From TrEMBL:
Protein species of origin: Methylacidiphilum caldifontis
NCBIfam families: eubact_ribD
Gene Ontology MF terms in the entry: 5-amino-6-(5-phosphoribosylamino)uracil reductase activity; diaminohydroxyphosphoribosylaminopyrimidine deaminase activity; zinc ion binding
GO biological process: riboflavin biosynthetic process
Similarity comment: In the C-terminal section; belongs to the HTP reductase family. In the N-terminal section; belongs to the cytidine and deoxycytidylate deaminase family.
EC number(s) from the headed UniProt entry: 3.5.4.26, 1.1.1.193
Named cofactor requirement(s): Zn(2+)
Binding site for substrate: R191, T203, L211, R214, E276
CMP/dCMP-type deaminase domain boundaries: 6-123
Protein name: Riboflavin biosynthesis protein RibD
Record field: catalytic activity: 5-amino-6-(5-phospho-D-ribitylamino)uracil + NADP(+) = 5-amino-6-(5-phospho-D-ribosylamino)uracil + NADPH + H(+); 2,5-diamino-6-hydroxy-4-(5-phosphoribosylamino)-pyrimidine + H2O + H(+) = 5-amino-6-(5-phospho-D-ribosylamino)uracil + NH4(+)
Lineage: Bacteria, Pseudomonadati, Verrucomicrobiota, Methylacidiphilae, Methylacidiphilales
Protein function: Converts 2,5-diamino-6-(ribosylamino)-4(3h)-pyrimidinone 5'-phosphate into 5-amino-6-(ribosylamino)-2,4(1h,3h)-pyrimidinedione 5'-phosphate.
Binding site for Zn(2+): H55, C83, C92
Length: 360
């Protein structure tokens, strides 16, 4: 691995800005951004907009060409190690070699087993300098992609909306009475990055939710799978989830162990699963150690509904508290939002950094 330069971090953050434009839109592919720099000047930029479209590296190269600038000898900053495998598009390493890029800097590794050998090995063998400028934000952006390609299961986000009396929100279907518009908008942004949304059967019966994306721009977004966990399989057939335009994107899992559900969703290329309730489902997912990330909304209301630590299927509470790693707090109108990773999620991302970014 070649030594990095002071300007590398700046340009990698510019590439990250590009990558974020594709967040939630590229599954089953990762979200990636890239910028090309020559003689200290930006000459091209791009991002992967959706599966099947050109990858970020190619977009950046083509952008430079449209500007009439040769990319030969330039430095490519890309938020994810370039791919070296065939999919719907050729390997990005081929383009990089063909266009005589002089140096490649990656913001995170690509552990996809299909990349064999990886770009970190291929490019230096062709005389192209390769180095890392790792960004935590770049690792986090593709947490779902990493988890699915390495484990066959999605990364799990537990979304919890709670009143100040400890009750969970009044329900997925009527959160408008609990949270203000800023909090509800953020909740729909979470749905934008998810490929599946999971609830329990009782939540489906009582709230009759849509589990669709609203309040945010959803262009090019494929409707996430809507998953119902049920013990009996007996659900009203007039539920919105069975009748609307996305009814083919509704799955009912009857008496399936959580682990089996996650494997099934992974086989359907669900990279990020958003668990929205109710209390029993959230409790079970936490107890089974399936959750990687928490998005918690606190509203200054009293609603007197079931608290999180009550599980109607088991008298046992959680055996120990779950501490968030480096939690962040934000005021959203009259609500408070807390976000963080659980130790499981934090350790997984750190293992990606240690195991796959050590080469080079």
């Amino acid at each position: 691995m070649k030594n990095s330069f002071p300007e590398d971090r700046y340009w990698m953050k510019e590439a990250l800005k590009c990558a974020l434009l594709g967040e939630g839109l590229t599954n089953p592919n990762p979200a990636v951004g890239a910028v090309l720099v020559k003689n200290g000047e930006l000459i091209g930029k791009g991002y992967h907009s959706r599966a099947g479209a050109a990858h970020a590296e190619i977009e950046a190269i083509e952008d430079a060409k449209k500007r009439g600038i040769s990319v030969c000898g330039s430095t490519l900053y890309v938020t994810l190690e370039p791919c070296n495998s065939w999919g719907k598009t050729p390997p990005c390493t081929q383009y990089i070699i063909r266009e005589k890029i002089g140096r490649v800097v990656a913001g995170s590794p690509d552990p996809n087993p299909k990349n064999n050998p990886r770009a970190v090995e291929v490019l230096p063998s062709m005389g192209i300098s390769f180095s890392w400028e790792l960004l935590d934000e770049a690792l986090f952006l593709n947490r779902g992609f990493y988890h699915r390609v390495l484990t066959g299961k999605p990364w799990v986000i537990a979304k919890i909306a709670m009143a100040i009396d400890g009750s969970l929100s009044a329900g997925v279907g009527d959160e408008r009475w609990i949270s203000g518009l800023p909090a509800r908008t953020l909740a729909h942004k979470l749905r934008m990055v998810a490929d599946g949304i999971l609830i329990g059967a009782q939540t489906a019966r009582v709230d009759n939710p849509q589990l669709t994306i609203r309040l945010v721009d959803k262009r090019y977004k494929v409707q996430p799978w809507r998953v119902i966990l049920s013990l009996s399989g007996k659900l009203p057939r007039d539920l919105t989830l069975f009748r609307d335009a996305f009814k083919e994107r509704t799955l009912v899992c009857v008496r399936m162990p959580i682990e089996m559900v996650l494997k099934e969703l992974g086989s359907r290329e669900v990279s990020i699963l958003l668990v929205e309730g109710g209390a029993a489902v959230l409790h079970e997912m936490l107890k089974e150690g399936c959750v990687h990330e928490i998005s918690f909304f606190l509203s200054a209301v009293i609603i007197g509904k079931q608290p999180l630590n009550v599980n109607p299927y088991s008298p046992a509470n959680l055996s120990f508290p779950f501490a968030l790693v480096k939690p962040s707090w934000e005021k959203l109108g009259e609500d408070i939002y807390c976000h963080g990773l659980l130790e499981k999620g934090s350790k997984f991302l750190e293992s990606i950094r240690i195991e796959y970014a050590s080469k080079g």
